[in-house]
UniProtKB/TrEMBL annotation:
Family according to the record: Belongs to the MscS (TC 1.A.23) family.
Subcellular location: Cell membrane
Coiled-coil residues: none
Name of this chain's protein: Mechanosensitive ion channel family protein
DUF3772 domain residues: 126-188
Transmembrane segments: 200-219, 246-265, 285-304, 325-350, 362-379, 400-421, 427-448, 480-504, 536-557, 577-595, 602-620
Originating organism: Tianweitania aestuarii
Membrane topology, as annotated: Multi-pass membrane protein
SUPFAM superfamilies: Mechanosensitive channel protein MscS (YggB), C-terminal domain (SSF82689), Mechanosensitive channel protein MscS (YggB), transmembrane region (SSF82861), Sm-like ribonucleoproteins (SSF50182)
UniProtKB keywords: Cell membrane, Membrane, Signal, Transmembrane, Transmembrane helix
Origin: domain of life: Bacteria
Presence of the UniProt keyword Transcription in the record: no
Alphabetized Pfam families for the sequence: DUF3772, MS_channel_2nd
Main location: membrane
Length: 802
């Protein structure tokens, strides 16, 4: 099963290569494209005729791959012909229609007729290409439906139960014929070898066997130890070394058995000791050797029984030691199943013998599954008492999976007893295949995450080079590594799910995945827009280039041009902010244009966004427009001292959405721009940079006001922060309730420094007034309690009436 699917994947990839070449050949002439379309139609007709007869599973896979490749080719050719048709339409539009009553020049009339003929031919070819794509999809659906029916028929077939005498009677009846077929298989092979005994060369067989032993033992151990030493000395980071070592062990563990089996079998062939009837079994032996080696290497890489420090999976040594033999048993079972199936096919075994072999394979698979479940159950029971709260969730997930496998194992055993041997074998093979795919997915996800997050990080050599060469921030490099890891891991999950569907034999699995990948490479239509990986990559590259150009332009604008102007800092910020947003908008429009999204579609998108803005984004739009007003009218500038409500501070930053104000306690107040436009804001530095000190107090009415004025002026002059121009001033503000009210003013260089000088002046005044005996303060208030008169009736007592 694994070998046939691997061959099918290679076949699909090889058939998809011409499709990619067709898609890349944009310069082909219409005649050449029509000729290629004819070839695709011929291929589809051949596939249709092949389906008129009953075909096997392997041949169905090949036909399906050919149909998918022909479909991709026809779709790609139709797309290229549409481009050619658009060019001809443009040429016809350039020539223009014939004016009424005018005589057209012969050469123009001939060119018009030629273009019209070409247009008709290309239009007909486009329709043929679309029809070919539909027919190819119908052939693929027919093959998938046929395979699904065959799969259902195979697993639903019932024979006599192995526990009944009828089953063994059929086996006994067919045994003599099967014995003769086996004897004929070996005797014919030996006769063929004896017939060419004179030409037999034993040294190629000996060399092949010796080479196989060398590759399988010394070379394999040397490669493992060499890779580990190389990773210790050269690979950065423990996680990356651990993952790379696991991947290297799988590569070595898969290729060395495959190479050893190939050398051994090829040596027998070169020596002339391989009969023709034995070839299929020998090929199966080579293929299953690689697969068994992969299973063993996968278990060794994940568990790492002898080297716990290199272990990828977080598990204890006891668990790894008990699970390691299971990988060997699974590899041995798979090897036995493949070799016996190939042997039965080569011998031509009878149906009872084939069913007996399938029952034996199902029994072996069932015993292996039960052994794994018992080992896991004992391990889980031993650790249940010491499990923490975090491990309890993981244990629950494992228990759910174990319960599901127990149910499948019980169903497999019941099916085997009832005579549904194919169904029982299918369940066992599916559980084994799911374990292999799951372990591979776990290991590859760990490897991908370790590589992506170790290579693309700010401290790695590549990250340092990217930061210095492209000016990228360290956080951007780290984020790219995490995003790349997530994308690759999601892709691995999709591939694993497709591989998990392989045993079902339907249209899903790896075939459908490769077909969808080929369709995606050609592009999909969404709202009249063709979206493909190439177009997306082109759009991303254009966007990155556009943003890079915007960044370079902003660097020149902020560092070179704006400093040479007479604009102040706030005006420079406004110009820089507007230009940055304009540049980003132009870069986005350029990227959309690279995706062949026209201006009319962009306008449609903006109109759709305007509807959303009208319903749910009023506040954001209001703040955005208010920010533009602030940047244009500049009632508030960066560096201004403003008061919003009860909060006062310096304007630090003005963006299109909000304004940042630094308060006196060093906190930052973020105010939406609409608040600064629609409400009252006190800007203390808008008209000028000066600040003012105001002092108000009162003295008794008998005090000489000239003395008070002199004392206040001397206090103003004693403060260094008080400016001479504008000069300080002392005013009699009012005479109220026997007191004289004074209102005094002085100016300082900035409102930000007014608080300290004002405090110094007040302390000076308090000292001078205390020395001179002048009473200052507010108007005294007196609270007088007045009696309340109430009308009261005397209370009559009963004894008064007596």
């Amino acid at each position: 099963m694994f070998v046939s699917k691997l061959r099918l994947a290679l076949l699909v990839l090889s058939l998809l290569l011409p499709v990619a070449n067709h898609a890349a050949a944009q310069g082909d002439t219409p005649a050449a494209l029509i000729e290629q379309l004819t070839q695709s139609e011929t291929e589809l007709q051949a596939i249709d005729r092949a389906l008129d007869r009953r075909v096997g599973a392997d041949e169905q896979d090949a036909l399906r791959a050919r149909a998918v490749a022909a479909q991709q080719a026809a779709t790609g050719l139709a797309k290229q012909l549409e481009d050619q048709l658009a060019r001809i339409d443009a040429r016809l539009a350039g020539i223009g229609p014939v004016a009424e009553g005018a005589t057209e020049a012969p050469d123009i009339s001939a060119e018009r007729a030629d273009l019209a003929q070409q247009r008709a031919n290309i239009d007909a070819a486009i329709k043929r290409g679309r029809l070919a794509g539909v027919e190819a999809q119908q052939l693929v659906d027919e093959i998938d439906h046929s395979r699904a029916e065959q799969f259902s028929e195979r697993i639903s077939t019932r024979v006599a139960s192995p526990l009944t005498p009828r089953f063994w009677v059929d086996v006994a009846d067919a045994f003599p014929r099967d014995a003769r077929r086996i004897s004929s298989f070996f005797s014919q092979g030996m006769e063929q070898i004896r017939a060419r005994w004179a030409d037999v060369l034993f040294w190629p067989a000996l060399l092949g066997a010796a080479g196989a032993l060398i590759v399988l033992y010394p070379l394999r151990r040397f490669l493992k130890s060499f890779g580990q030493r190389f990773l210790i000395e050269g690979a950065p980071g423990r996680r990356l070394r651990r993952s790379a070592n696991a991947l290297w062990r799988i590569i070595v563990g898969t290729l060395t058995p495959l190479l050893a089996a190939t050398l051994f079998v090829q040596g027998l062939r070169w020596a002339g000791l391989m009969a023709d009837r034995w070839t299929s079994v020998a090929d199966a032996f080579v293929a299953v050797s690689g697969f068994a080696g992969f299973v063993v290497a996968l278990g060794s890489a994940v568990l790492m029984r002898d080297q716990p420090s290199w272990r990828v999976a977080p598990m204890q040594d006891d668990t790894a030691s008990r699970l390691t033999p299971l990988s060997w048993l699974l590899a041995g079972t798979s090897m036995f199943n493949v070799l016996m199936t190939a042997f039965n096919t080569a011998v031509g075994a009878s149906q009872p013998a084939t069913i007996t072999l399938q029952g034996l394979e199902a029994l072996l698979q069932l015993l292996l599954i039960l052994a794994a479940l018992f080992i896991l159950s004992r391990l889980r029971a031993a650790k249940a008492a010491s499990s923490s709260a975090s491990k309890a969730t993981t244990g629950a997930v494992q228990s759910l999976i174990s319960l599901l496998v127990w149910i499948l194992a019980a169903v497999s055993a019941l099916a085997l007893v009832l005579g549904y041997i194919s169904f029982s074998l299918f369940i066992g093979q599916f559980i084994g295949w799911a374990a292999i795919v799951g372990a591979t997915l776990y290991l590859l996800m760990a490897v991908v995450d370790d590589v992506a997050t170790s290579v693309f990080t700010r401290t790695s050599p590549l990250g340092i080079a990217m930061s210095r060469g492209f000016g990228l921030r360290g956080s951007m490099i780290d984020q790219f590594g995490l995003l790349l890891s997530g994308i690759l891991r999601l892709s691995l999950v999709a591939i694993a799910f497709a591989l998990l569907m392989i045993p079902f034999g339907g249209g899903g699995g790896l075939n459908a995945l490769l077909s969808q990948a080929g369709a995606l490479a050609q592009g999909i239509q969404i709202g009249g827009i063709s979206i493909s990986p190439g177009a997306i990559l082109r759009g991303v590259i254009v966007l990155v280039i556009g943003l890079t150009l915007v960044r370079l332009f902003m660097g020149w604008l902020e560092n070179r041009y704006l400093p040479a102007t007479d604009l102040d800092g706030s005006a420079r910020n406004s110009v820089s902010l507007v230009m940055r947003y304009v540049g980003i908008a132009l870069a986005v429009l350029w990227a959309l244009a690279s995706l062949n999204i026209g201006v009319e579609r962009i306008a449609l998108l903006l109109s759709a966004l305007s509807v959303g803005i009208g319903f749910g984004l009023q506040a954001i739009t209001q703040n955005f427009v208010s920010g533009l007003i602030l940047l244009a009218e500049r009632p508030i500038k960066i560096g201004d001292l403003i008061r919003v409500g009860t909060d006062e501070g310096d304007v630090k930053r003005i963006s299109v959405r909000s304004t940042e104000i630094v308060l006196a306690d060093h906190s930052t107040l973020i105010v939406p721009n609409s608040e600064l436009i629609t409400k009252t804001v006190l800007n203390k530095t808008l008209a000028g940079p000066l600040g003012r000190i105001q002092i108000q107090f009162s003295v008794p009415i008998g005090t000489d006001p000239h003395v008070i004025s002199t004392i206040v002026m001397e206090a103003f002059q004693a403060e260094p922060a008080v400016l001479e121009d504008p000069a300080p001033a002392v005013f009699v503000d009012a005479i109220t309730d026997g007191r004289i009210m004074f209102n005094c003013f002085a100016h300082v260089a900035s409102p930000r420094v007014a608080y300290g000088p004002r405090s110094n002046i007040l302390m000076t005044l308090l000292g001078r007034f205390r020395e001179t005996g002048i009473d200052i303060g507010t108007v005294p208030q007196r609270l007088e309690m007045l009696p309340v008169e109430r009308d009261r009736q005397p209370t009559r007592k009963p004894e008064d009436d007596a």
